[in-house]
Specification:
This protein has helices spanning about 45-55, 100-115, 135-140, 145-150, 160, 170-175, 185-190, 210-220, 225-235, 280-285, 290-300, 310-315, 390-405, and strands at about 60-70, 70-80, 95, 205, 260, 270, 285-290, 320-325, 325-330, 335-340, 345-350, 355-360, 365-375, 375, 435. It is of the alpha+beta class and about 475 residues long. The strands form three sheets. A ten-stranded mixed beta sheet has the order 4-8-9-10-11-12-13-1-2-15, with helices on both faces. It has a three-stranded mixed beta sheet with strand order 6-5-14, with no helix packed on it. α2 (about 100-115) packs across α9. The chain is globular, with a radius of gyration of 21 Å. The two termini are about 15 Å apart.
């Protein structure tokens, strides 16, 4: 297969945008969902069935936690290890990638509340040595707010850290599996990458470098390692018992293997659950469970981690480009999506090699979904290598998210009217297995498509840069 452009054709995670056009203005109070209270009870059969369909469509393993008020459901479907047949379970720990950015933003805002950081101060007030020589003028023009809402236009460091990706080769993923890379080196690589615009210009451009600089600012003003501060003042304060910065390449506690395909370059997909995540740092190194993520975002959006004024700052959004022709409304470490008939949701997604995660919470903190899965960049390029072929996994993902956040399959969100069912995803050739709530294993659901084409959040797995055409170097 000739691959003309790999990273540029599908930047970021494999998660998809909602059809509703996100509002680029500052967030206020959201309109109440149009559903009646009686329709808010979770449909366990539908959730179980759509999660099974996600696995049956080709996803190796997946776990999901859904909440509506005091009503909670969680389930898992598929395999934690495709070689041994070990099954996934709902409480498995998972690499959550860029969802870590929300945790880092909360920590920065806590320091803003203490008067130790000003959102509109230049970053060189806190970390002048990160911007030496000719870069000092750029650092003077970048504020802390610009880091958190991705309008700094600093380049991304990921391709510098894994240079073979620029030649459409995944060799450096394995060569550097156990390498420790310091955050200051990540910043150096980000500064060496081409700037994406002038500081403060809109739309912004998603870059992991922003959150590495933010982590170093946090260390400077608190006198603590970022991981230590985040653990004590964000993770512990939120009451999270299974969320942590990994201290070794190994995930502590029960977890699945996490498989990377990289659009067919790695065939068969390879396990990347054992990986030194120092290259993610405060931009994406955390591990967590789906229950913990729901608890975290519920606490955040109800003012229990930062004050209401800080939360309002966090929810002031600007347009941020996350890929060619794709933009999201991004606040400070969090983005917003408006879903007709369901309400406004806040959250983040994350993707590292082998692991994808999505966590969304309705603005009132009552309706939530956190979803993890263990096969990344499963889509295949077309024969010309210029675009991705449609995948039944994408459709099945769409259906489960729609079911979890809006309504049961077979009804349009917010209307209660029946609709035509869409095509059922094809079954995976991999052995199947499911754990969790029992129920139907029916395939795709009907209703308005909630997740159309388009990619969310340029993430740690590719960075924010577009790779120029190059012949593949298969490993």
């Amino acid at each position: 297969m000739r691959i003309k452009r790999l990273v540029g054709s599908a930047v970021g995670t494999t998660l998809l945008l909602f059809t509703a056009v996100p509002t680029a203005s500052a967030a206020g109070t959201t309109a109440a969902p149009t559903r009646s209270a009686a329709r808010d009870a979770l449909d366990r059969t539908a959730l179980r069935g759509t999660l099974d369909a996600f696995h049956e469509a080709g996803m190796y393993g997946t776990y999901s936690a859904v909440r509506e008020g005091g009503d909670r459901w969680k389930g898992a479907s598929g395999l934690a290890d495709v070689d041994t047949g070990r099954k996934v379970t709902p409480n498995m720990r998972h690499r959550i990638g860029s969802i870590s950015k929300t945790f880092t933003a909360v920590a920065i805002l806590q320091q803003v509340e203490k008067g130790r950081i000003s959102l509109d101060a230049p970053v060189t007030r806190y970390v002048p040595d990160l911007f030496p020589g000719a870069d000092r003028q750029r650092g003077d023009a970048i504020t802390v707010r610009m880091l958190l809402n991705h309008t700094s236009h600093l380049g991304d460091y990921v391709l510098g850290a894994f240079p073979s990706l620029a030649q459409n080769s995944t060799a450096s993923l394995d060569e550097h599996r156990f390498r420790t890379i310091r955050p200051r080196e990540l910043v150096r690589l980000g500064l060496a990458a081409p700037a994406t615009g002038s500081p403060g210009a809109q739309p912004g451009s998603y870059s992991n470098t922003n959150y590495v600089v933010a982590g170093l600012i946090l260390e400077k003003v608190t006198g603590q390692k970022a991981a230590t501060y985040l653990t004590r003042h964000v993770i512990d304060r939120a009451g999270l018992h299974h969320t942590a910065f990994p201290r070794t390449p190994y995930i502590k506690g029960p977890h699945a293997k996490m498989y990377e395909s990289f659009y067919g370059l790695i065939d068969p997909p390879r396990d990347y659950s054992v990986y030194d995540m120092s290259w993610g740092y405060t931009a994406g190194a955390l591990t967590s469970t789906m229950d913990d993520l729901n608890r975290f975002y519920a606490k955040l959006l109800t003012g229990k981690l930062i004050g209401r004024a800080s939360l309002a700052q966090m929810q002031r959004t600007v347009p941020v480009n996350v890929g060619p022709g794709v933009a999201i409304d991004y606040g400070l470490g969090i983005y917003t999506l408006e879903i007709p008939g369901c309400g406004r949701f806040w959250g983040h997604d994350g993707g590292v090699f082998g692991a994808g995660t999505l966590s969304l919470t309705r603005a009132d903190g009552e309706r939530q979904l956190s979803l993890g899965f263990t096969l990344m960049k499963y889509q295949r390029l077309n024969e010309d290598g210029t675009a991705l072929e449609p995948s039944p996994i994408d459709e099945a993902l769409n259906v489960h998210v729609a079911t979890a956040l809006c309504d049961a399959p077979g009804t349009d969100a917010g209307t209660g009217t029946e609709s035509k069912p869409s095509a059922k995803p094809s079954k995976s050739s991999k052995p199947s297995g499911s754990v969790g709530e029992s129920g139907s294993s029916a395939g795709a659901a009907g209703g308005e498509r909630v997740l159309p084409d388009g990619l969310v959040g340029v993430d740690l797995s590719t960075g924010g840069q577009v790779v120029s055409p190059a012949a593949p170097v298969l490993n």
